[in-house]
Amino acid sequence: MQIGILNEPSDLRVALVPDVIKQLIDRKNNVLVESNAGVQSSISNDDFQASGAEIKDRDSILQNLDLLISVTPPAAEVYAKLKPHALVISSFEPFNKPEVAQQLASTGVTALSLDMIPRITLAQSMDVLSSMASIAGYKAVIVAANHLPRYFPMLTTAAGTIPPAKVLVLGAGVAGLQAIATAKRIGGVVEAFDTRLAAKEEVESLGAKFVMVEGATDDKDAGGYAVEQTDEYKQKQQALIQAKAEKADVIITTAQLRGRPAPVLLTAETVQKMKSGAVIVDLASSTGGNCALTQDNETLDVDGVTIIGNSNLAEKVPMHASQLFSKNIFNYLKVFVSEEGELNLDLENEILKSSCISHDGAARYGN
Q1: Which CATH architecture has domain 134-316?
Q2: Fewest 10 Å CB contacts: which of 67, 157, 297, 335?
Q3: Alpha helices in 195-336 (DSSP H)
Q4: Are 189 and 166 in contact (CB under 8 A)?
């Protein structure tokens, strides 16, 4: 099988790294890499060639490949250059963009969407969402520390004692738990909120205090996403979060609803009551944000409170993000590419059935 990866001008990551390319070549595949595709992830053309990959120009790759792997969805003009029935792997987000499956079907490609891989035990090693969320949670704390006009840890000096920063994490999924762990490591005092009672033990195991609001609707089948709550619960939740936010130096928000706008957990009124110099990092900004004032991919100053909207912080750690993404891809490919490099696209397989959103000119999602 001819597998190709391209330069991604809108992302610092690369879809395959040399160690994984070696494994793919050992399994009788050829890997074509566009020149300088890995530069922003600190991977040179020589590194790719040493792994056995061929460095090619973009058009040559697109005309010859059987499978294109891309961190972000390829530009529209890419599809016209592909062979009929080529496979494309990326994160197409059909939950948030319901028209995308039909658009892909019209190009004739078979589209496999990484964000649709079921979050089951069998597929944990393929879970790109969790890999990238973990990095984002770590980076959110580092970004907050860079903007915070004070120390994170408690310091006792001859000039006096500086108390530790107070950190509030809203949403204790993969990103939230990594944010908790990182904030604790650099000396913050951390509290965390989540509607899922199951998160309590995980939060406390990391040394943080779990903030509980009674009466939450909990859906264990939501794949790690938050679920919509009752109006009564939202009122209790809002009052408690506002009380905690007023005392916080840093707030990291991570709560998202699959296929729906992110729940607003921090109102404009709450932000106005926060300390001057406080920092909010909103990882849910791409779906509207957990803070009412968040602007996606923008950093704002609202009466002395810094609000950073960025749902793609994993991209800011491109070396390790590329390594984890690439390993997830390799484990996913093993589901439908044999050790001899032969394609076996069994769409009754649980993992492929969920993640294939277009095939043979037909949309397989949203119909």
Answers
A1: 3-Layer(aba) Sandwich (3.40)
A2: 157
A3: 199-205, 231-245, 268-272, 318-333
A4: yes
